[in-house]
Write a structure and sequence with these properties.
The chain is α/β, with parallel strands linked by helices. It has eight helices and eight strands. 38% of the residues lie in helices and 17% in strands.
Length: 332
């Protein structure tokens, strides 16, 4: 009898401990959600330093998945090729919740694993995302890193088409598989959910980001071009190309079939990056058009801003603070 009573007491102690632990985790989750809500109501002002520990592993880790998808090459070959993308799902991802999406493009010589790494070997930016979500800097989100292809002879001659591929193939694939704010993958619903979708990229990916703004602003409200204007010149900034590119972006926005043409651009580079001036001047030339209003602080005062990090060179590994700050300003 005594042994039975002791056994029951032990069971009750463990049960109480389990309930307490569950309650503690629920409170932590609730506090995180409240912190995110407060962040949404608060204006993010200017540029913030990314905490150094964000490059290390977080305790609440998101999940990486590899996705294969097919696209049609848009050249004389017109053949179908297989491509891959990495997909980041936040910690405690649930199909019962809705998530913002961010499509992030690599630069020349990179791959779909450049920013996030692989399932077995995650990279630094995956840690940054984990920390930002864990600390309530941003709401949990889905990040997708597609790839270009070496099937084309010249990356830059066909770079405009990566935006076409994302819109026609990748977005429907991702947003029909995972829980996002789109109700369906019809054109109407994808456009209706554009305020929950962002695109960005480094170097060649930055160039593709500008092209996506020019050609597909119906599908994205937020843009994060890093270390590249719309054009590519190996010398960096070229005045006539910059002015012409600004005009082309302006015309693309004018032609967009949207009732409200609201959009936001966070452009970034480094002072020792040979594309810094070209990226900055791209926005400067765009400020001549009424669609673009410069801001130094946040997107309540304007819809476009540029910042250059001191000493940063042309390397995706130096772009983490750019991404950190861009995401702080998005989806608010």
């Amino acid at each position: 009898m005594k042994k039975r009573s002791l056994f029951i007491i032990i069971i009750l102690i463990f049960a109480a401990g389990g309930i307490a632990m569950f309650s503690h985790r629920q409170n932590q989750a609730s506090q995180r959600e409240n912190k995110i809500i407060k962040k949404k109501q608060k204006d993010i002002s200017g540029i913030e330093n990314m905490p150094e520990q964000y490059e290390e592993k977080a305790s609440e880790k998101g999940t990486l998945k590899e996705l294969s998808y097919k696209v049609h090459m848009k050249n004389e070959n017109n053949k179908t090729i297989q491509k891959k993308a990495m997909v980041y799902l936040p910690y405690n991802y649930s199909k019962n919740k809705k998530y913002n999406t961010f499509y992030l493009l690599h630069g020349y010589g990179g791959s779909y694993q450049t920013f996030l790494g692989s399932v077995l070997s995650p990279r630094t930016f995956k840690n940054v995302l984990d920390h930002m979500i864990q600390e309530g800097d941003i709401a949990p989100m889905i990040v997708v890193t597609p790839e270009y292809t070496d099937e084309y002879e010249d990356y830059y001659e066909t770079i405009e088409q990566i935006g076409d591929e994302i819109v026609s193939t990748l977005i429907p694939e991702i947003e029909s598989t995972y829980s996002t704010y789109t109700k369906s993958i019809t054109k109407k619903e994808l456009i209706a959910s554009r305020n929950h979708r962002a695109v960005g990229g480094f170097s060649m990916g930055g160039c593709a980001t500008w092209y996506t703004l020019k050609n597909h602003m119906e599908y994205f409200e937020y843009y994060l071009p890093m270390s590249m204007p719309l054009y590519y010149n190996p010398k960096g900034y070229e005045k006539s190309e910059s002015i012409n590119s600004a005009r082309r972006i302006h015309e693309g926005i004018q032609n967009a079939n949207l009732k409200s043409k609201k959009f936001y651009v966070f452009a970034a580079s480094g002072t020792d990056d040979f594309m810094s001036e070209a990226t900055k001047k791209q926005l400067s030339d765009l400020y001549k058009y009424k669609e673009f209003k410069e801001t130094k602080d946040n997107f309540t005062n304007g819809n476009a801003m540029f910042y250059s990090w001191k000493g940063h060179k042309h390397s995706f590994k130096e772009s983490y603070p750019y991404l950190y700050n861009g995401l702080l300003h998005f989806y608010r």
